[in-house]
Request: fold
Amino acid sequence: MASEARHYGIYWVLATQYFDQDLVDDRLDQLAELESDILSQLHPEPRIHS
Reply:
């Protein structure tokens, strides 16, 4: 989890260096919505790396 947090931080810093903050925030919102949709459709039983 810590390594994923570092990845997020690195990618966020890079994105905000090359793009407007509002554009980055909008894109992160879009991705969060897509990921939420995917997670809501996963198989309901526990799995490893589902």
